[in-house]
Design brief:
single chain, 275 residues, alpha/beta, Rossmann fold, 8-stranded mixed beta sheet
Length: 275
């Protein structure tokens, strides 16, 4: 379903701007919010969702500019902008508390949501979320606006390849479709927003004073963010860090059962937490 972002904002979002929302599991179960990364969508969580719905109301959003959400050129695509929209969407769904999970740059949005809405975020789990900019190790591919509409599937696979464990991994077609559905503007504006957020302050520095339980899941074969950088999150008091061997940047796609086991052990312990 689509939840309208119901009022105009300073960054130019129109009144009818909408985020697409998917919900699975019992309505009365503890809420678990899943936030995808750049150039992806809520569909990136598809293999994981059936493993989570036995104990959670699983909520997924397509961030503005992604998936089945609106893709306006005149909106704000900063990380705080995206987090504000997600918080407003949860308010309209009647969700008062949620464990928030973010993959890759979705981890930055999850962090910003916790900064903005301490009342809403019970705990955080970050999957493959680079803590600082200098931990980024993927090759930077130069793509022009003129090239973007004409990229082949093979070129998109090259663009997205570092998001998985190793060369030769068969990237799901729906992932390529989600990348292709983005406009060049929404793609680049989203990436610039993430870079700016990390340049201002690292994720561990932002999370440390918030006092929220934190789980960090990293693939030992991550080719986008240096796996050893997961240790930076030890700056957050009580942070739990789980390194998954033989898994890359997208554990929820590459090894859903193992990812779900670690995640559920954490979320069930903190779903009902109250300050």
């Amino acid at each position: 379903m689509t939840i309208p972002d119901g009022k105009p904002h300073a960054h130019g979002d129109a009144e009818d701007t909408a985020l697409h929302v998917s919900q699975d599991g019992p309505d009365d179960a503890p809420a678990l919010l899943l936030i995808h990364g750049s150039a992806s969508s809520a569909r990136s969580w598809d293999p994981l969702v059936p493993l989570l719905t036995g104990s959670h109301r699983v909520i997924r959003v397509d961030l503005l500019g992604h998936g089945r959400s609106a893709k306006p050129d005149d909106a704000g695509y900063t990380v705080p902008d995206q987090a504000r929209r997600v918080g407003a969407t949860l308010d309209r769904l009647g969700v008062g508390r949620a464990v928030v999970v973010g993959h890759s740059s979705g981890g930055a949005v999850a962090t910003a949501l916790a900064e903005q809405r301490g009342d809403l975020v019970t705990a955080l789990a970050l999957i493959g979320a680079g803590p600082v900019l200098d931990a980024y190790i993927a090759p930077r591919l130069a793509i022009t606006p003129e090239q973007w509409p004409h990229l082949t599937d093979d070129q998109l696979r090259e663009f997205a390849g570092s998001g998985f464990s190793r060369p030769g991994y068969q990237i799901p077609q729906e992932f390529l479709d989600d990348v292709r559905a983005m406009t060049f503007h929404t793609l680049t504006a989203t990436m610039r927003g993430t870079l700016a957020y990390l340049e201002q302050r690292s994720l561990p520095d932002r999370l440390a004073p918030l006092g929220r339980p934190l789980l960090v899941i990293f693939g030992a074969e991550d080719r986008r963010w240096r796996p050893s950088s997961a240790a930076d999150y030890r700056a957050v008091p009580g942070a739990r860090i789980e390194m998954l061997p033989e898994v890359g940047h997208s554990p929820m796609l590459e090894d859903p059962p193992r990812t779900a086991a670690v995640l559920l052990d954490f979320t069930t312990a903190h779903a009902g937490r109250r300050d």
